[in-house]
Amino acid sequence: MHAVVYHGPGQKSWDEVPDPKIVDDGDVIVRITTTTICGTDLHILKGDVPAMTPGRILGHEAVGTVTETGPGVRSVKQGDHVLLSCISACGRCRYCRERRYGQCIGGGGWIFGHLIDGVQAELARVPFADTSTYRVPEGLTDEQVLYLADILPTGYEVGVLNGQVQPGDVVAIVGAGPVGLATVLGARLYSPAAVIAIDPVPSRRAWAEKFGANVVATPEQARAEVDRLTDGLGADVAVEAVGIPTTFEQCTELIRAGGRVANVGVHGKPVTLHLESLWIKDVTITTGLVDTFSTPTLLKTVAAGQIDPTRFTTHRFPLHDAIQAYDTFARAGETNALKVMLIAEG
Predict the structure, then answer these.
(1) Mean pLDDT computed over every residue of the chain
(2) 193 burial type by CB count under 10 A (0-12 exposed, 13-18 middle, 19+ buried)
(3) What whole-number distance in Å separates Cα of residue 281 and Cα of residue 220?
(4) Strands 28-36 and 62-69, how do they pair?
(5) What are the residues whose beta carbons fall under 8 Å from the beta carbon of 326, sequence distance 6 or more?
(6) For residue 324, what are the domain limits?
(7) How far apart are CA 242 and CA 179, in angstroms?
């Protein structure tokens, strides 16, 4: 088969590699029909993820068809159309029993395209299939469910739920890339008074308006807009959706006393925490890796038409053109890319 293989910081290629095999009783083999590229893949290529080793297949978001199952698999069978979660869950360890699947210590967590071969490939081995795959509901397309592998549950769980968005809240989302936009969609489910999306790129601000943000602003305009919406009080919830020091610091500057800062972005550099000004404000700061416990709920919202994930797709490529797709996605400021969908032939 062929796959996108990581060869060290800044190096990747579309290579011929051995077909995956069943290793454990709970494994399945899936023929990938659609996959996509995540901002985390770009972090890997920048060298921000030290556990990533050369020779690893990239990717952790995909939809496909089960072609082979291990003897211990019970919930899916050959021929099933399944969504592959970016997070694998052993289902037995302490963290899995708490629905903290991202922290799984039984061999799961974020392993695809990180600790084991990923899914930007023609075939993929999927461990813990009973607890880490989801049958695609009848009538839904690959494109409707693909982004539930990662960005939608990430924005929803790490941004909206950790931030405890409530009806009537003013929610400031710093960063209007795919995860920031997913947070906009998730926040709208809770009837906030206003969602303000903050981004320096005009095209991203335009996307945020299309996704449902009431107000958009540049970083320089953000303070004035939040003050206008809150009579100078500050945002009830501020969500960091970029992963750089300045955007995290801006969240802590925009939040009101008693507010909640939810960090979603993947940080590759140290960030200063200004406790000298935050300690007296009763501010709650949360962090987290997505757990994907919300995937069944989000599948229902998509099936009911409450969320339309297809709007994320701005570019489509055949799977074998994955390297070109990476170039397009990495130059999002020039290409206006949100998500690129890689489609397998046939």
Answers:
(1) 97
(2) middle
(3) 23
(4) antiparallel
(5) 4, 12, 37, 41
(6) 2-150+292-343
(7) 8
Element (H, E) at 205: helix 202-211
What is the phi/psi pair of residue 270, to 5°?
Answer: -60, 150
Tell me if residue 335 falls in helix, strand or coil.
helix
Q: What is the CATH number of the domain that holds 94?
A: 3.90.180.10
Q: What is the pLDDT of residues 289-326, one digit of tens each?
A: 999 999 999 999 999 999 999 999 999 999 999 999 99
Whether residues 9 and 44 share a domain: the answer is: yes
Tens-place pLDDT, residues 57-87 = 999 999 999 999 999 999 999 999 999 999 9
Number of residues in the chain: 346
pLDDT of residue 345: 87
**CATH code of the domain containing 164:** 3.40.50.720
Distance of alpha carbon 65 from alpha carbon 80, whole angstroms: 6
pLDDT confidence of residue 48: 83
pLDDT at 172: 98
Residue 228, token pair as written in the block: 């206008």
248 and 195, same domain (yes or no): yes
Burial 125-159 (b: 16+ CB within 10 A, else e): bbbbbbbbbbebeeebebbbbbbbbbbbbbbbbbb
Identity of the residue numbered 256: R
Total structural domains within the chain: 2
Using the 8-state DSSP alphabet, how is residue 321 labeled? G
Alpha carbon distance 288, 254 (integer Å): 20
Task: Tell me how far apart the alpha carbons of residues 288 and 291 are, in angstroms, rounded to a whole number.
Answer: 9
The DSSP line for 127-181 is: SSHHHHEEEPPTT--HHHHHGGGTHHHIIIIIIIITTT--TT-EEEEE--SHHHH
